[in-house]
Write a structure and sequence with these properties.
Elements lengths: L4 H14 L8 H8 L3 H13 L3 E4 L5 E4 L1 H5 L2 H8 L25 H16 L4 H6 L2 H4 L11
Antiparallel strand pairs: 1-2
């Protein structure tokens, strides 16, 4: 199962913010920590804020911080929300002739949909807090100790 690029950036962002002692970070700081372009992180921050998973403070000393709801969120449910793809495979516009010729009686599409749901279900018991607390990679991130320009 491959995650959408957007879901991947959102997960990286929330994992960084959920790390112990992460505090409040700007989108630029997050982008540097997770090696993702700033504009992608900014979109992820906006979506996570809309979902109530992070709080964002504007201004010179502003930044994003994870909320309790964000820490307690199920990883599986979060992925269901963030991954806006309808199907695992795209049966439309298969080639220059239009839709896939098997689309009418194909069982693969529904099997792949069930497999995706099984994937998400296997992640339902995990919370953001659990994956952040148990990740040695996150604890090794070089979190900024002092804000630039503050």
């Amino acid at each position: 199962m491959k995650l959408s690029a957007f879901a991947d950036v959102c997960l990286r962002t929330i994992m960084v913010l959920g790390a112990p002692n992460a505090g409040q970070l700007t989108s630029r700081e997050i982008a540097e920590l997770v090696s993702v372009p700033y504009n992608h992180v900014a979109k992820a921050v906006l979506e996570l804020r809309t979902l109530g998973l992070i709080d964002v403070t504007r201004g010179r000393n502003g930044g994003a911080a994870i909320t309790q709801v964000g820490l307690e969120s199920s990883v599986g449910q979060l992925l269901r929300t963030l991954d806006h793809r309808e199907d695992v495979v795209d049966c439309t516009d298969h080639d220059a002739n239009g839709n896939c010729p098997l689309v009418g009686g194909c069982r693969l599409r529904s099997a792949l949909k069930a497999a995706r749901e099984a994937f998400y279900s296997s992640l339902d018991p995990l919370t953001v807090q659990e994956i952040c607390a148990q990740s040695p990679a996150i604890t090794l991130l070089p979190f900024p100790t002092m804000r630039r320009g503050a």
